[in-house]
Amino acid sequence: MDKSSILAHILEPEGSTSLLGGELSARVVNQEKYISPLCTVETDSPVSLDDAFQSALSDDVKPITLIGPEGSGKTTALERLVVEWAKGKHLQKFSCVFLFRLKELNSLNAPLSLQSLMLQHHGHVTPETTALVFQRPEEVLLVFDDVHHCRESLDPLVQTTLCSDPSQAVSLSCLLASILHGSLLKGAAVILAAGPTDCLDFLSSTALLGFQKAQREAFFNMFFSDPSVAQKAVTHMEKTLGFYDFCTAPRFCWTVCSIYRSLMDAGRNLPETLSQLFVEILVYLLGTLSLSEASNRKLVLTLGKMATHCYLEQHLSCTREEMNSFGFQQLFNAASVFLQAHGDQADRFAFHSQLILDFLVAVSFYLDGVKCEGVMDMLKKQKPFADFAGAFMCALAEPAQRRQLEALLGEFNSDQIADFKSWFKTSSEKTLEGIRYEEHLYYFHLLYEAQNESLVKEIVTPSARMGLSFGGLNLQQCPALKYVLKCLDEVQKLNLHMTKNMTEELAESLAPVMTMAHEIELGSSTLSAGAVPHLASALRSGLTKYLNLSNSGLGDEMFEVLCTGLNCCGLQTLSLVSCCLTKKSCANLALALASTSSQLSNLNLSFNAFGDEGLIELCKALGSPHCKLQALSVANCNLAGESMKALSQAVISGQSQLKRFDLTSNYHFGVSGVEALCKALQHPLCKLQSISLYCCELPGEICRPLMEALMSEHCLLSELDLSVNELGQEGALLLCQALKRPGCPMEKLGLARCELTQPVFKELGSLLSSGTSQLKSLSVGLHEVGDEGVKYLWDAVAHPNCLLEDLDVEMTGLTDACVKDLCAAVRASRTLKNLELRNNSLTDESVPALIQVMQERPNMVELCIRYNEISEDVFEILEECGRINY
Question: What domains lie within the chain, and their CATH numbers?
Answer without folding.
Answer: 3-210 (3.40.50.300), 214-270 (no CATH), 276-432 (no CATH)
